[in-house]
Design brief:
Elements (H helix, E strand, L loop, with lengths): L12 H8 L5 E3 L5 H4 L4 H6 L5 H9 L1 E5 L2 E6 H4 L6 E6 L6 H9 L3 H12 L3 E3 L1 E3 L5 E5 L5 E5 L4 E2 L2 E10 L2 E6 L9 H4 L7 H8 L2 E5 L5 E6 L2 E6 L2 E5 H7 L10 E6 L1 H11 L8 E9 L5 E9 L2 H17 L3 E3 L8 H4 L7 E3 L5 E3 L2 H4 L7 E3 L2 E6 L14 E4 L6 E5 L1 E15 L5 E15 L7 E6 L6 E9 L9 E9 L8 E5 L8 E2 L2 E3 L4 E3 L2 E3 L1 E11 L12 E7 L14 E10 L3
Parallel strand pairs: 4-11, 16-23
Antiparallel strand pairs: 1-6, 2-3, 4-5, 7-8, 8-9, 9-10, 10-11, 12-15, 13-14, 16-19, 17-18, 20-21, 22-23, 24-38, 25-28, 26-27, 27-38, 28-37, 29-36, 29-38, 30-31, 30-33, 30-37, 32-33, 34-35
Helix pairs in contact: 4-6, 11-12
Length: 592
């Protein structure tokens, strides 16, 4: 094993013994006694060495910052002269881009100075004293919260060779290295390092904001009733990351995998996603209210969108459709590693940070076959193709629980009530064997106001996109009457014509393969399919129905679906007029 001689300023036998007492690749969390560790501070030791003059110049010109937007009057030369304990890995002259960092400091901009701090100075130092001795490896938290492996057996810090180790100081340890410790960006920082990710970077960074941290700030005197601050501390936040993506991509203690579309992929994806957010300037919604006496009162609500608002909403939602599904918390992938993510068959499912689940092979196709790029808090996959289909991502199925009264628009001939059903059923399978099953479900029950009434109920269908959908009504078999239902369906929606803001009505006909005929839909009795009891029948009422305009994000504009029982007096022994409705489900379809 290679060993290094400890070269101390003013070295003594006592000093050598003191360091021998430390553990291999030592992590000493106590201040070093100046009587045994050296007669100079870290700053004095760095400044006195001609081969570190470039690094010394950077340290003396850079002010210490509490955060990216708040610097102090104290330079790093001052910081390394006080009694706080640090370990410094100082790069030799000519081994780092001195002109680049010097020019950043010359701009006078705080963001440039902080870049020097973050990427060079803080990336080459850590708190406490760390001595190179023995053959162990120690993973250290650097002063910028990045991590680096201090390998004593190889004499390296994050694979950078230490040419002169263990120079003692009154306030720590100095090591001289043959180049700076490589700065590794995190996921959030990485997107700014490549010009081919400009579109993504611009979109996400637009939500950056500096927040005032009162608890960390120092309050000054109150002047004319207003609090002043001697030292105000701010921190960088990003509402899109934290609120929409639910991902802290700029935190070093996180572990994420993120797919990043290039400008090419972004542009092509935007052409696809914009079509789904086609807003019109005016929507007139007819709202029917039924009072306690059963009387209908009709009112109109108008939603008006300016061109600016329409463009803003389309821009916001279409871009979020591109990136909203592309972040994964790598700690919560059911045992899968980053290397599994992009391989077909390796991951049966992946869940992203907004809790959308992708199953194989979609889970692999998202990554476009790209290999992971390691960053300080996870992995990045840069893709040239946007392989996410609407129905798997932003056009996820819309499911409206019928018993949720917020989705009921109007009703006639009935009183809607919630039915909590739990019952034991005996159903024969395909071989004639009787199967005992328990039904437990919550339903909307349309209780007739009279025996002759055919109940009718209209549901709100909010947040639909301007695209095609297959629309299903999930209706249960009426166990009390032991009869199926026969009903008709009608969709009301707004057209794209700007000179027409009122709604169109379209009567639906039974698609091929659905039970019923013409306009009359029917539900089927309980049955066994694939060994499982099917009690709630999924009835396809519209195939490839296209909404011309988008309702996503609008409070008072939406499409509606009207279901009305259509049973004549002669058919009451064949069909139940009372409907037991479970859900309305819409599945988006993206045209190839």
């Amino acid at each position: 094993m290679k060993r290094y001689n400890h070269k101390w300023l003013g070295s003594t036998v006592v000093a050598m013994a003191a360091f021998a007492f430390l553990a291999s690749c030592s992590d000493d969390h106590f201040d070093i006694d100046p009587e045994v560790a050296g007669r100079q501070t870290l700053w004095e030791s760095i400044k006195s060495r001609e081969n570190l003059s470039q690094y010394a110049d950077i340290l003396s010109r850079t002010k210490y910052s509490k955060n990216e937007n708040s610097k102090t009057v104290q330079s790093y030369a001052d910081l390394l002269s006080n009694d706080q304990t640090f370990t410094i890995w100082a790069p030799l002259n000519g081994t780092f881009d001195y002109d680049y960092y010097s020019n950043l400091l010359s701009t006078g901009k705080q963001e440039d100075a902080f870049k020097v701090e973050k990427e060079l100075i803080r990336n080459n130092m850590t708190r406490f004293s760390h001595v190179m001795t023995g053959g162990e490896q120690l993973e250290l938290d650097l002063f910028n919260s990045k991590t680096a492996v201090f390998d004593c057996s190889k004499g390296t810090i994050k694979n950078q060779t230490i040419v002169t180790p263990n120079i003692g100081a009154t306030n720590g340890v100095l090591h001289i290295i043959d180049g700076p410790v490589e700065y590794q960006p995190n996921v959030y920082e990485y997107m700014a390092t490549r010009s081919d990710l400009d579109s993504l970077n611009t979109y996400i960074k637009a939500y950056e904001k500096y927040e005032f941290d009162e608890s960390s700030s120092t309050q000054g005197p109150t002047v004319e009733g207003q609090i002043t601050w001697v030292d105000s501390v701010t921190y960088l936040s990003n509402a899109y990351l934290y609120g929409t993506l639910r991902a802290f991509l700029n935190r070093e203690d996180s572990l994420y995998a993120m797919i990043m579309p290039t400008n090419k992929a972004w542009s092509e994806a935007l052409e696809r996603t914009k079509k789904f957010y086609n807003y019109k300037s005016s929507y007139v919604q007819t709202v029917v209210k039924v009072d306690a006496d059963g009387n209908e009162n009709t009112t109109s609500v108008t939603t008006t969108l300016s061109d600016e608002v329409r463009d803003s909403m389309t821009n916001l939602y279409s871009k979020n459709a591109i990136i909203g599904d592309y972040v994964f918390n790598a700690r919560y992938q059911h045992g899968h590693t980053y290397e599994d993510f992009n391989k077909a068959g390796a991951c049966d499912s992946l869940v992203n940070t907004i809790n959308r689940v992708f199953y194989d092979p979609t889970s692999a196709s998202l990554f476009d076959g790209q290999e992971p790029i390691e960053v300080s808090n996870g992995y990045v996959y840069v893709v040239d193709n946007f392989n996410l289909k609407a129905e798997d991502g932003w056009g996820e199925p819309l499911e409206y629980q019928a018993e949720n009264f917020n989705f009921q628009d109007s009703y006639t001939g009935c009183t809607p009530t919630e039915l909590s059903l739990k019952r034991e059923l005996y159903v024969e399978d395909s071989l004639g064997n009787e199967v005992d099953s328990i039904v437990e479900v919550k339903l909307l029950r349309t209780m007739q106001t009279s025996s002759a009434a055919n109940p009718s109920i209209t549901f709100k269908i909010p947040n639909t996109l301007s695209c095609k959908y297959d629309i299903y009504v999930l209706m249960a078999y009426n166990l009390e009457a032991n009869l199926p239902n026969k009903f008709r369906a009608q969709i009301s929606y707004h057209t794209a014509e700007e000179n027409k803001s009122s709604m169109e009505n379209q009567n639906l006909t039974v698609p091929e393969g659905t039970t019923g005929e013409g306009r009359d839909f029917e539900n089927r009795p309980p049955r066994i399919e694939n060994g499982q009891l099917v009690y709630v029948d999924s009835i396809l009422v519209a195939k490839d129905f296209e909404f011309p305009v988008c309702y996503y994000g609008l409070n008072d504009a939406y499409a509606t679906l009207r279901l009305n029982s259509y049973v004549t007096s002669r058919q009451t022994s064949q069909y139940s007029r009372e409907m037991w409705i479970d859900q309305i489900v819409l599945k988006a379809k993206e045209e190839e």
